[in-house]
Amino acid sequence: MKRTINHHGISLEYEFTPKPVKNINLRVRSDGSVAVSAPRWVTKGQVEEFLLARWDWLIKTRAGNLGNNMPQFGWQDGETFHLLGQPITVKHQSGSKNAAQLQENILRLTLDTPNSAQKVGEKWYDTFCVQQTALLEERVWSRFRSMGTERPTLRLRWMTSRWGSCMSKQGVITLNKRLFSLPPHLAEYVLLHEYCHLLHPDHQSGFYSLLEEFVPHRKQLDKQLKSGAYRFVR
User: Fold this and answer.
1) pLDDT of 178-197, one tens digit each?
2) CA 155 to CA 133: how far, in whole Å?
3) Which 8-state DSSP code applies to residue 107?
4) Which pLDDT score, from 0 to 100, does residue 229 have?
5) Fold classification of 80-225 (topology level)
6) For the chain, where do the domains classified as CATH 3.30.2010.10 start and end?
7) Are residues 152 and 172 in contact, defined by beta-carbon separation less than 8 angstroms?
């Protein structure tokens, strides 16, 4: 049977099977799915207590397996990715002019040829990132402006190993375009993290003290960023 457990903002589905065994057994499959077996007398609460005791390992292992087995996203009909934390499905339709339109949880790509899907999809996503960056900046800077620093310039690019970077002397913050696959509260956290580097370029105690003034639960958000729960377009 399918069950779901929520912890620190991460929702995890697992398959539970009662068996004639002595102990609770946990397995993370190569595709990232989670399976739990346990004696029939074990309660749901006991199973969840068992999972929470191994939560960090579970999330890390699942994220690694998902990353190793996830096929490259290609803007194909029926493919799914995440946008602002929500799953979005790509749908193709033929037309004389290339276009893209987001309708609730569907991204409709109108294509003049079947081979133009990636070009149309990536152009749409780049525009979406620029629009969302402006909205994100307004939300987050309104919280940080009281610190007295000059408002930095925000840039966007694809990054493979970090969510953002800050060149404090130049007053430039670069954000990963992948950021807009995440829920808004995580994107806000990343930008606040980079804003704090304007005053503390390193990761010493002063930096974390300032960050925790804005985000007291930052460690929970760090775990969500590492959860592997979101699929990116690149």
Assistant:
1) 999 999 999 999 999 999 99
2) 9
3) E
4) 81
5) Zincin-like (3.30.2010)
6) 80-225
7) yes
